[in-house]
Design brief:
There is one protein chain. By secondary structure, the protein is of the alpha+beta class. The protein has 3 helices and 8 strands. The chain starts with 20 loop residues before the first helix and ends with a strand.
């Protein structure tokens, strides 16, 4: 069994996009539309997994084929394959009114506190106490990584046989 690489621990940086909420998804969509959204190269690819649902319209459509690598370190802004933990999965099923798949494709996002105009010392305290986790984002919202598991970083995607984001 391959153990998937998890994101690096959060640290105070300035290389993250200064966006919050829906703006983060819309920026990724804009970058995809103009050809600036890229997938990392990976080895040990797993797939294809077929996309279902509509939580990342424009970035991922129902029927897309996806390959991911458990050996590529996920970074802020990457598309990642997630296995929902029990708590998130139960909440999502109740929210949608039906059973949802255990696996999902999401955008990995560092918490907005890293981007805000807050003194570095205050950011460090907030990061250590209130925002210790990455977020899994889509068009309609975001959930903390928490007990959900990143299986890998998306490395290849095709739609109707055409490669995307290369």
């Amino acid at each position: 069994m391959i153990t998937s690489v998890q994101p690096e621990p959060l640290e105070l940086t300035t290389d993250c996009l200064p966006l919050t909420g829906e703006a983060f998804y819309l920026d990724a969509l804009r970058r995809a539309e103009v050809g600036d959204f890229r997938l990392p190269n990976g080895s040990a690819e797993v797939g294809p997994l077929v996309s279902v649902g509509d939580c990342l319209p424009g970035l991922s459509e129902h029927g897309d084929l996806n390959w991911y690598s458990p050996t590529v370190t996920p970074r802020h802004g990457d598309l990642v394959v997630v296995r929902w933990g029990d708590r998130a999965w139960n909440w999502l099923c109740a929210e949608h009114g039906h059973e949802v798949p255990r696996l999902a494709l999401k955008l990995l996002r560092a918490p907005s506190i890293l981007h805000e105009q807050v003194p570095t010392a205050v950011k460090a305290i907030l990061l250590a106490t209130r925002w210790p986790d990455y977020l899994l984002a889509c068009r309609s919202g975001q959930l903390a990584l928490a007990d959900n598991e990143i299986l890998g970083t998306l490395t290849r995607k095709t739609r109707h046989g055409t490669p995307l984001y290369i």
